Target: Glucose-6-phosphate isomerase
Amino acid sequence: MPNDDADAAWSALMALARRPDARAIRPLFAADADRAARWTHRAGDVALDLSRTSVSDDVLAALLRLARARDVTGFRDRMLGGGVVNPTEGRAALHAAQRGGGDAAVQATLARMQAFCGAVHGGALCGATGQRFTDVVNIGIGGSDLGPAMVARALWTPAAPMRAHYLANVDAHAWQEIRARLDPARTLVLVASKTFTTQETMTNAALVRAWLVDALGEAGTTHLAALSTNLPAAAEFGIPGERVFGFADTVGGRFSLWSAIGLSIALALGWDGFAALLAGARSMDEHFASAPPESNLPLLLALTEVWHVNGLGYPARAVLPYDERLARFPAHLQQLEMESLGKAVALDGGVVARASGPVVFGEPGTNAQHSFMQLIHQGPTPVPVDFILVAKPDHPFADSHRKLLANGLAQAEALLVGKSAAEVRAEMAAAGADAERIAAIAPHRVFTGDRPSSVIILPRLTPGTLGQLVALYEHKVACLGALWNINPFDQWGVELGKVLAGGTLAALEGRAVAAQAATAASVAAILRLQAEG
Ligand SMILES: O=P(O)(O)OC[C@H]1O[C@H](O)[C@H](O)[C@@H](O)[C@@H]1O
Model:
């Protein structure tokens, strides 16, 4: 459907982006002593500082005009109200409802999950030999792995009730590595799959079930539970109804950690931790639903991305948590953002008129500084960065933590202020370099500056603050879907490879010849190497 207002808003935005100073950030600080404060927005425990971007007052006004023209708040209200916002699959997107609002089915599932955790932790539910469960293995991939694995990695401490292990890859090296740490008699196994048909997960589930039965006999199968929307398939796999935790197909995989898919989190951290995670996310939902656009954190994060991707043509973004516990947070966002927004077809079936979801990648700081940050500082195309800092650590080593935070803030500052050729030359001269060396080396040591970053500061990493952080990014993704007129809740792009894998498997088993020439050649090369023994 033509949207003249949106076209006009896009034109106005792109006109601002064509101004020669559109990328400049330093002059915005020079012109406004209050910029850092004025561009820092808060919701609950999250402080989002957008001052180190070239979003100025007039750019923000143009972005907010676009948000109005694209009716982002209408989309938000339809999503939170249970409307069909995923039209290609004819579904609502009800992940926020899983966080324990008023929905009776959600409350019933949460109550069952809580009772199960209580029984496992209290020893009422034990393994086949009567021993208590000390370890839980979550078998799942994509959204049935990344969210729970990220949260458990972030919040687990040695005082937690159980250890959690995440088996995703069909590469059985992964299972071998995890298996070495486990005693089958004390291991609970969750088969986590929305569809209960995913090849990798079902293959791993069969391996792990065989391991349980080998060690414990048929009684070993009582260690299995299932998290799925496909109750018949879970039953067919041999998991009785009382150990199947369902959820609705209106919860997308990458948004599913809040549903039964989060059971490994609750088992590993304890129910109170999981409940606090949900409550944190709920508080971000409330902010998203009610804060005005100009102070609405998810919307502001989305609009900043539009400026970077569409206005300035930056095709990637890095996520750098300066907190080792958030090591898997970039991986979670990779799926959340790229599976949601990596689309070139608009909702009306036409071609998306402009760039959409950027490449998202990241690593914890400071490690990232010693690997890919070179490109972000001096590569030809700026890469906006999200820095995530946590003010107070949960360890007693204050000096280490100060160094960690100092590095994070220094990276953001280096990207912003840069270092001019004149500065480099003066510095080299002061250090005694001769004119010839200065001329040769100085260009290599220049930093352009004016490279954007967003800085998010949390007071502490807790279930509550992590819940807020994850929900912030989820709602940012929803806003971008509305702004770009794409469906952020489907993922048709993962299908073709899955289907073709059936044919390549037949070729590798020697049952067929691959039709595509390069695939056939690769299969032949692998079969030759395997035959050499
Ligand atoms: O939970 P499952 O049905 O096993 O799906 C696991 C994952 O695989 C799919 O291919 C999708 O790309 C993901 O969105 C999903 O999370």
User: Anything to note?
Assistant: The mean pLDDT is 97. The chain has 21 helices and eleven strands. Residues 463-484 form the longest helix (22 residues).
